[in-house]
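Dear support,

Our group has been running a series of protein-ligand predictions, and this particular one with iron/sulfur cluster is the one our PI (initials K.S.) wants archived with full inputs and outputs. We had some confusion internally about which version of the output was final, so please treat the block below as the authoritative record. The input we submitted was:
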Amino acid sequence: MIKYLIIQVDDTSVSYCHYPALTGKPRLISLDDLRAGILWAMKENVTVQFVYPSYRLPDEYHRVIESIDHADIVPAGCEDTGLLDKADVIVLDGMSRIASHTFRSNAAYVLRTSKEDLLTGRDAVAYLLDRVMRLNVVITDVETFTDDDTERYGKLLGSLAEAVAEQYAAGRNVQFNLLTDRLMLDRMNNCNAGWETIALAPDGRFYPCPAFYGDADKGYNIGDLHLGPDIKNPQLYRLDHAPICRRCDAWQCRRCTWLNCRLTLEVNTPGHQQCIMTHVERNASRRLLPLFPGTEIPEIGYLDPFDIAKN
Ligand code: SF4
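Confirmed final output from the archive:
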């Protein structure tokens, strides 16, 4: 059942996840499609999130957007400072964005970064943990992660666990997707694109998420505003039809279906890289168990659940 609608208002809207933002000329969703998308969301009683470009939208668009309760996902470099001041989620596209940004302690932040910048960027991430309410770190080149990176990633997260513990000791219960999410969950909490979440793109069509809009030429649209969403084989997006993931306890995993398609060509089959990284995060989260009394994360002897499945 669909619970969330993400409306990408422009072709150049910021990416807040693994996929690259589209480059090229701005193309705003038409006002008619924006109104129709909002009406659809109202009728279906789904929660709406708007994803913005860095330029200021015409006032008419803001008037239409304000007609529904929603959340705003805004790039850190947005020239509309009024929008930035009230954004629910602010996206830092790369480590270089950090130094020039004025942080809001009551906002959630997404840091999109390459693997290598993250592995060498411990102090920058600790700096963010000291300033924000919630931090989601998203790696933009997951496909480059190799087994040789596992130890470095584990060490980085171990060091960042100390930074999180310092925040807690100072009375700031910061949320950090790579370390605290697993501790706060009691079941799988994935992105669920194509199952509980879909996206409306500037072309007036629905997609499993904005990432698939960038691959629109591959035929990933799942319906339009006239006929509504029409997802072929919808079971493929569901956790209960993902044979490995449904038995996994890396509950914080995004289980990104777009990454699955890129790495394995299957919607419901994750790539080795996604599983390894997620399990390093799961295991590093155990270091913070003393901060979460009553929470258990069992010790396990594998990093990729497929190794268990093979046996
Ligand atoms: S770690 Fe791998 S098996 Fe576990 S939920 Fe994520 S993608 Fe699925």
